[in-house]
Write a structure and sequence with these properties.
- The structure is a homodimer.
- By secondary structure, chain A is of the alpha/beta class.
- Chain A is built from 17 helices and 24 strands.
- Chain A folds into 2 domains: about 20-220, Glutaconate Coenzyme A-transferase, CATH 3.40.1080.10; about 235-494, Glutaconate Coenzyme A-transferase (3-Layer(aba) Sandwich).
- In chain A, helix 3 (about 75-85) crosses helix 4 and helix 7 (about 235-255) crosses helix 9 (about 270-280).
- Chains A and B meet through strand 4, helix 8, helix 14, strand 18 and helix 15 of A and strand 4, helix 8, helix 14, strand 18 and helix 15 of B.
Chain lengths: ~500, ~500
Amino acid sequence: MTTPTFSEDLQRVGDVPVTDAATAAASVNDDATLLVSGFGSVGDPKAVPLEIAKAAEAGERDPELTVVSGGSVGDPIDTALIQADAVARRYPYQARSAARTAVDDRSVAFADRGIAGLSDEVRFGRLVDPDIAVVEAVAVGHDWLVPSTSLGQTPGYVAAADELVVEVNAAQPVALGQFHDVYLTDAPPNRDPIPLSAPGDRIGDPFVRFDSEKLRAVVQTNEPDDPYKFREPTAADRAIADNVVQFLRTEADRDPVVADAPTLQFGVGSLGNALMGALADTELLNGDGPPLRYFGEVIQDGLLDILDTGRLAAASATSLALSADGQERLFAEPERYADRIVLRPSAVSNAPALIDRTGVVAINTAVAVDIYGHVNSTHLNATHVLNGVGGSVDFLRNAHCSIVATPATAADGDVSTVVPMVSHVDHTEHDIDVVVTEHGVADLRGCSPVERAERILRIADPAFRPDLRRYLDHARTSGGHVPHDLDRAFDWQR
Amino acid sequence: MTTPTFSEDLQRVGDVPVTDAATAAASVNDDATLLVSGFGSVGDPKAVPLEIAKAAEAGERDPELTVVSGGSVGDPIDTALIQADAVARRYPYQARSAARTAVDDRSVAFADRGIAGLSDEVRFGRLVDPDIAVVEAVAVGHDWLVPSTSLGQTPGYVAAADELVVEVNAAQPVALGQFHDVYLTDAPPNRDPIPLSAPGDRIGDPFVRFDSEKLRAVVQTNEPDDPYKFREPTAADRAIADNVVQFLRTEADRDPVVADAPTLQFGVGSLGNALMGALADTELLNGDGPPLRYFGEVIQDGLLDILDTGRLAAASATSLALSADGQERLFAEPERYADRIVLRPSAVSNAPALIDRTGVVAINTAVAVDIYGHVNSTHLNATHVLNGVGGSVDFLRNAHCSIVATPATAADGDVSTVVPMVSHVDHTEHDIDVVVTEHGVADLRGCSPVERAERILRIADPAFRPDLRRYLDHARTSGGHVPHDLDRAFDWQR
């Protein structure tokens, strides 16, 4: 094929027959393992899942699907399909209340997986035996498609599935093709390294190729994403952002890796978005420092702000996880950003090797942090799931510097996010370099457990510090490298 | 320099002045950050640490050293120096009772670190500001040295330290030079990938180069390592080994990555050694399958057994962590093994990218596993440290398949290693694919937490299964994705 030019003249549907969504939905068997596009709540297929849900609600079929998405997806899958009782199993992440409720009452079997290795797990038969992929595109030909607002696990899923259905969404501009850099890693053993040298480099194509024999149906849709809504930054968000910026400045003074090419990653969500916004309002490196680089998972609105200042050389991610306003801004002038934003498959955007090689400073949020630096990102009171661990596990483990940033309280100040012992561990003490709250920075590097506790206590909410102090002082009377009192460790969660 | 030939004719000390250990010890300041060679309890410096300990015991000096080793080291550091109260801080691992006691009573500040990233942490100022490296060698020149029985973090530490002391140990054969493949990764950002394609490849030199200005002293010693002692395999060890072998055979039937190039890693210790021995006694892949490959951290005696059968194509590690018998066997005929054993810096042997690219099946042991698949490798009752997390964290996270193998009981059957909730998490549910005990194999891949619990219960010790069943059934009555009762979760540890 010739490379598409991604002008609005591009024919969105090439030489392939088009069908309606209901017909396409019929090609998904009731017991299918269904792989779907979508990451950061955008770029997911919309019409086919809704048709399956509709047929299930009408009692015309009784699906027991295994649904594997790239990351978080929108309502057609994680609300409509779930509420239609059409989903038996769900991987690797969910962020809608219907899905959360179903996972929590165990009517849907959920396995919470990291992002970097997921395409491999699916491709090499370690998680599921995939049947069919349903993916959203801005254009499709007989053996290629151009993904829409997220790339996610789509290249791996399309390669792994026996059959393929493509939804071509007219609400997604063709110009999105300019952002994609599709590179499919080869299989182990003796797998080659990913040949990426810097966050802004391109190593692949703007389209996903597939075996034309797989293509079962092409459906045309015209339905915008229902993306993240970011709340306005709170005073705590702004104080955390200030503390992070101050920490990064200090690091740049002593660490040439940070000074020479400050490379950041922020987790998905309102706090991450606020941090990006803060960096748009201030020079990270005073004076003539090099521009920032972003090597992360999602492009959020705040990153567009930094791009607009000219202080961000390149942004690498797997999803344009923008708000509706952010989409409007990007879609209005895609060329303005196309040379500095690259969307990669998640197996590349989150690759441990690349996070290491590019020297990422990773900043992710948490549900709770304990006094020794273990982090809970996923569960309340040990049992109730929130969204999933997502890419935080890839970045916090492999980063040059791993920062967990969280407000010191939750629930309007009623609950301390700093606790004696977290009741679910997603990130261990071995991975967390720094904890930041609105009360300051706890640099844990090189500290023994008790030294870590002393530093973390200083950035806990002042109202909870006396209780944390009592716990620590009591626990350390009985000795041990990591002083704990297992009778009281979970008093706060119980 | 010309490449040494590693015959016994090689001049062990080139054109550099030699001094005595007491003089060399004086070049280590009392407040120094001291980097030492050694990994797997072998290849550590012996004379200089003993001289510092002696002077401290005699009240001639009052050291408050920060000691950073590659991995575990022998008695001169982790017994003599510790007992002389000469160590204030210790990283990243310890495996002697004197060190364990000091860490546990917090007279030594210990930070438990993984292995793969440690050289980077030291080189790039994220853990310590290193002053002096003391390393063991089999030969030294004015700007090169040939390490002895372990390579470990030596290349990174020699590069990072301001000053260097070399102990040339006549008890270590010069022929050890044949095993080393020294490759120093460059610095992030924009770091190149490690150019290794297969476990047996060589990409570096047999010697560590250094800036000749750094060399403070060369000391001659003649002191064998005091290496691991492996216990005889128990009945449980043998049953676990049988279960692992059976699982690997099943995997090879369905997974071409395992069938085409079965690549294994085993954790340090008696169980790992027993597993290696079991694989020497049986063909993993019946018939004409390809030979095994080993991409791990340590060469233990059992690996020599497999090498002797001809069924192991190559073994890559960072340490010859052999028993005294194993050393004798290797030292008697180094040429017999030299073309199939490669010792690499730990930053290469444990590199996440290489564990991924070579398709490693990683098999590591545990202190305890909980019913949802979280693993404790390091602490008893949350507080008391054993050795450290070591390389298990590198391999279990990044492997193609991650197996935790443990006897179902400890303390002569009095304690279940399968518990409702582990009281210290070193490896999260996100990383563990399979748990093996003497009672069977629990394949957790794709399972929801409750499904994992059902599988893990089936391989717990039969005497403890009813209690585990009661806990699970009680916890699941109250709902939640990961059913727990925080009032009772630690009943077994309390």
